[in-house]
Specification:
Shape of chain B: rod-shaped
Number of helices of chain A: 9
Radius of gyration of chain B: 42 Å
Largest interface: A-B, 43 and 28 residues
Structural class of chain A: mainly alpha
Oligomer: heterodimer
Distance between the termini of chain B: 114 Å
Number of strands of chain B: 0
Order of helices and strands of chain A: HHHHHHHHH
Helix content of chain A: over 70%
Number of strands of chain A: 0
Largest sheet of chain B: none
Helix content of chain B: 55-70%
Chain lengths: 196, 279
């Protein structure tokens, strides 16, 4: 891979050179490279993790796991995508074990009366939004893993089917099929739920 | 729930995720701490490989000095079985030589055809069934000549021994094994010299007791120093001395044969045996 990165750096555009340089530093295990990658991409990765898992605590754990595993994962990186896409791909693979903890936490929260409200928005809107989101994520917890991933990436994260396919390593048509089945199952599961 | 409702739920999930405020400082510190605690993977692999190699090397060295060898090497190192030709006996260490002659004699070193009296000579005193026909039934005189001229006849062991004692034995064969049961005492023969020779011959090739065979040969030679089969008896005595590892006596017994003119009775064989004896 170091050879690939060297070739990529040699033929890269000037504005792409900083990221390729960061790739090379990550591949070589330079201590400051992980810190710099975190500084550049932690916000977008955290947002993705929150949308994917629907649980802030699990999302933070996922972000932590992704950057810890990043130096090792760089060995199989071939420079075919951006670092952000590569990080999201790692996050999708590592997210499955965090899904279980998020699902358990949601089940526990369902038994509680109170739900934390963001202080910057109207309480009733925030409550309604939170309830809707909780309902959705509880339904997502019951979907097969691949269908849930396709739904979250395409619907919540608003990726195209091609982008989602690049992240999960599946053809675009496969992603579309998974998304179709995910929407159908969600409608069936949420049929009868009262919309606030 | 209608599509609209699902879309509203998706939007709500998106907004809820955006509401999360976290500057990521705590997670950054967690990441640094975790990476600092994690040992260098390469160093860990090196340590594991080094430990494995050290274990293998130490075990191999211990096994080597403990004398253990793998089974396949033990089979490869196993010595070849002793050969049964006179040339091989002469070329090997003297220690093996004394065991070889006994083995060599029968198959390769052609012994003089045993002098067996004609069936007619033996038959009369034997009431038992007549002995089977023998191959080398020759007159003693002819036999002596043959003995001096290095007879090449295949050894016909005196298998068909004295009928009286040999009755319970199975039908005799032409070629007898080297290891044979103790020979029965030979019946009184018309020719006492031949009988004495037969006793010694039986003791040598079928008795399994070299000391008894030596005594029998000595008895024959003492009784018949110029007898018809003396030459053969003296050579057989030399072979018994080799079997008994009496090297100096064996050398003295072999020397007349080894130093005889080429082509003499057992000259070449005796020379090789003499050369192979330990000095």
């Amino acid at each position: 891979m170091r050879v690939n990165l060297s070739l990529a750096i040699a033929g890269a555009e000037p504005e792409a050179e900083p990221e390729l340089t960061l790739f090379a530093r990550l591949a070589q295990g330079e201590p400051g490279a992980v810190d710099e990658a975190y500084r550049l991409h932690h916000a977008s990765l955290r947002g993705f993790a929150n949308r994917f898992l629907g649980d802030a605590t699990a999302a933070e754990d996922l972000v932590h796991d992704v950057f810890v595993i990043l130096p090792t994962a760089m060995r199989r990186f071939r420079g075919e995508s951006s670092l952000r896409t590569f990080l999201i791909g790692i996050a999708v693979k590592r997210a499955y074990k965090h899904m279980r903890s998020a699902s358990r936490r949601r089940a526990a929260m369902e038994r509680l009366a109170d739900q934390p409200i963001a202080p910057s928005v109207q309480p009733d809107t925030a409550v309604a939004r939170a309830e809707l989101a909780e309902v959705l994520y509880r339904a997502l917890d019951r979907l097969p893993r691949d269908q849930r991933t396709a739904f979250v990436l395409c619907e919540i994260d608003q990726m195209t089917a091609a982008e989602a396919g690049a992240v999960v390593g599946a053809p675009e048509a496969t992603v579309r099929t998974r998304l179709f089945h995910a929407r159908k199952k969600l409608r069936d599961m949420l049929e009868g739920e009262v919309t606030p | 729930m209608s599509d609209f409702d699902l879309d509203a739920a998706v939007a709500a999930a998106r907004l809820r995720a955006a509401d999360v405020t976290n500057d990521g400082t705590a997670t950054r510190l967690r990441i640094r701490e975790t990476l600092a605690r994690r040992p260098n993977a390469r160093a860990r692999r090196t340590a594991i490989v080094t430990a494995i190699l050290a274990t293998i090397f130490g075990s191999t060295a211990f096994a080597y000095y403990a004398g253990w060898r793998p089974p396949w090497t033990q089979h490869a190192e196993a010595p070849a079985p002793a050969v049964s030709s006179s040339e091989q006996v002469a070329s090997k260490k003297p220690r093996r030589a004394h065991t070889e002659p006994a083995r060599v004699e029968a198959p390769a070193i052609v012994e003089a055809a045993p002098v067996e009296p004609a069936p007619a000579e033996v038959a009369p005193p034997t009431p038992a069934p007549p002995p089977p026909p023998r191959v080398a039934t020759v007159a003693p005189a002819r036999t002596v000549e043959r003995a001096h001229h290095e007879p090449r006849a295949v050894e016909v062991a005196p298998v068909a021994a004295e009928p009286r004692e040999m009755a319970p034995l199975p039908a005799p064969s032409r070629v007898e094994p080297l290891v044979a049961p103790p020979p029965p005492p030979p019946p009184p023969a018309a020719d006492p010299e031949l009988a004495a020779y037969r006793v010694a011959h039986e003791a040598h090739f079928r008795g399994g007791n070299p000391a008894a065979a030596l005594a029998a040969w000595d008895a024959y030679l003492a009784a018949y120093p110029g007898g018809k089969l003396t030459v053969d008896a003296r050579y057989s005595r030399a072979l018994i001395l080799i079997k008994l590892e009496r090297w100096s006596d064996a050398a003295n017994a072999l020397r007349p044969f080894a130093t005889a003119p080429a082509g003499s009775y057992r000259q070449a064989e005796a020379a090789k045996l003499l050369a192979a004896l330990p000095h």
